[in-house]
Amino acid sequence: MGKEAAGRFLFCFLAVSYFLAMLLSGGADRFLSGQYTITAILRIGVPDDEGTGIAGKVAELRPVREARYRTPEDAWKEFLEAYPGLESLRGARKNPLPGYVEIRLRPERMSEEGIADVRSALEPVSQVEKILSGGDVMPSLLRMKRWANALLWSGFALVCAVFLVILAMQEKTRAARLVPDVSFLVDRGVPGDRIAARRTAGAFVAGGIVALVATLVSCAALFLVSGFFHFVRAVVGPAQDLLDARHLLPVCLFLLFATIFQGLASLAGWRAAFPGEK
What we know:
By secondary structure, the protein is α+β, with helices and mostly antiparallel strands. The chain folds into 2 domains: 2-29 and 141-273, no CATH class; 34-136, Alpha-Beta Plaits (2-Layer Sandwich). Helices cover 66% and strands 8% of the residues. The chain contains 10 helices and 4 strands; from the N terminus they run H-H-E-H-E-H-E-H-E-H-H-H-H-H. It has helices at residues 2-25, 29-35, 48-59, 72-82, 112-122, 137-177, 179-187, 192-228, 230-235, 248-273; strands at 38-42, 64-70, 100-105, 128-132. It has a 4-stranded antiparallel β-sheet, with helices on both faces. Helix 1 (2-25) runs antiparallel to helix 10. The two termini are 26 Å apart. 25% of the residues are buried.
């Protein structure tokens, strides 16, 4: 039973780690939103205070995670870093480049609707000359994102299915070991259903403890790994986001279902070992 409990903890740890990673990242959403930007190019001559004001207004939109104003001087420095040796294009100390606003979306709003909301808010602004948002490439990229998310969630479902199969096999084996003892009790008038109900209740409590401990260990591991590796923060997200109240309900539901499944697996294993026992 010790080995079986360790195996359950390991599978539960893998399942909850997968679930928390998907919960934080949204699948491919966080990585894509970290790489993708909407660029609002301002007209030449727009004052910096107006550019900063536009960025502030854009940052208040629901789909937007971050909006930063880049001055014409910033744009010129970035241009020279990308194309060194072209300093001569700036004649008479006049900067040929305008300022721009760099916009990043929230992972959960990384969609055609989110992009359209930002574009519709920027298009009426007279200081904006052009909006770069990916053009015809974005619909195909977003379709690929949806397929990637479906594949990742399918992997989570597969992990859960394997976990459930192993649980059922373990419980059936445990019940089979108890055949002599159960037969002894049943012959002396103890109802088999009472034994099954008590075993199920015990499995429910033990399963809840295993799921809770696995979740706490997984959260601690995620905090540790996220603190050391920037790649994890970029793809999965900072572990501190788990403290957000909107993640509390999904985590509680996962714990509840993991507990219920272990109780039901105990009952199913009993019925398999004692199909006609009442």
